[in-house]
Amino acid sequence: MKKIISLVLALALVLGLCSFASAEAVKKVGIAMPTQSLERWNRDGAYLQDQFKAAGYDVILTYSDNDNDKQVNDIANMLSQNVDMLIISCIDSAGLNTVLDEAAEKGIPVIAYDRMIENDAVTYYVSFDNYTVGVLQGQFVKAALDLDNAGDKVFNMEFTGGAPTDPNAFYFFNGAYDQLKEYIEKGTIKVPSGQTTMEQVGTEQWSTDTALSRAQNILGSYYADGTILDAWLCSNDSTARGVVQALDSDYAGGNAVVVTGQDGDIANLINVVDGKQTMTVYKNVANEAVVTLSVAKAILAGDEIDGAALAAAQEIECAYDTESYFSSEGHNTPSFLLVPTVVTKDNLQYLVDTGLYKWDADQKYLEAV
Ligand code: GAL
Description:
By secondary structure, the protein is α/β, with parallel strands linked by helices. The chain has helices at 2-25, 39-54, 68-80, 97-105, 130-144, 167-185, 198-201, 208-222, 237-250, 266-273, 285-300, 307-312, 349-353; strands spanning 28-33, 58-63, 85-88, 110-113, 122-128, 155-160, 189-190, 231-234, 258-259, 280-282, 318-321, 326-328, 331-332, 335-338, 341-343, 357-359, 366-368.
């Protein structure tokens, strides 16, 4: 009898230790998103939180109102709550050194999410191929204006880039500009405002209002005389909304202007259906969250990570890249890059097929699921 009691007690002790150990094993992940004022980040935050909670992690999710100082405080609070990992979409790629240096000292891994961060505490980068986003926009304008068959025709276009604090903005702009510069150099494309550098076309915080007022100034200064505008390349949807508002209020040319965007924001998809925006570059941020979870799991498990194999194991197309992104000069950051897709009024069903959008009651416009 005594043997049975001692056996039961021993078993209870082992199970207790196991449960204590498993309770200890719950890892805590800090997810820092830049803002809720730009539509996509609400989706990113929700998808990331859902994925990590479903995988059994504790999650701290913050949005920092596009204010770098606030994001520094938010991340400092995560560190004080002993997170085991940081996943950050930065507001300012050079603005997080204090907290990321602390993370490095504590050996806390950092995944740069969507936007690269200039600090060697970053262990991995998960995003889309940002340069290709721009290439798709530039190629779209080239095809829409049929530039290769322009003959002596001259087209007028303008550019609106993203936030100068966001490294993605430079990849987007350069990707697009590299597709169009030969036509600018040979005079097939003219830019009446003369603004053709990121320093000239950038938009602080990707603000719709800032894009609107700049576009109104350009239209008032260079197109009020009846000059025809043929295209306006916008690096994302929030800035495209500003440009479209300006075209509605301040452009009298009467012609349809080719307008690009990125993100598949609901308001912009309405403009796409209504012919006010011509295309958007869609990035499935739910997939971006899934890949981020895969990388995070491997890091937190202490696995030896074979990046190429991890990328190949994803159900969606994902490239493993060790050449394109750097946390500091000469310090390559292994990156997992997803593939962006061009969406126009002709393939909106593609968005519905992702399961993240649905048709409205009239089957005319898209709504978020
Ligand atoms: C970029 C992001 C884009 C764009 C912009 C504003 O970094 O990759 O999707 O929308 O921020 O959120």
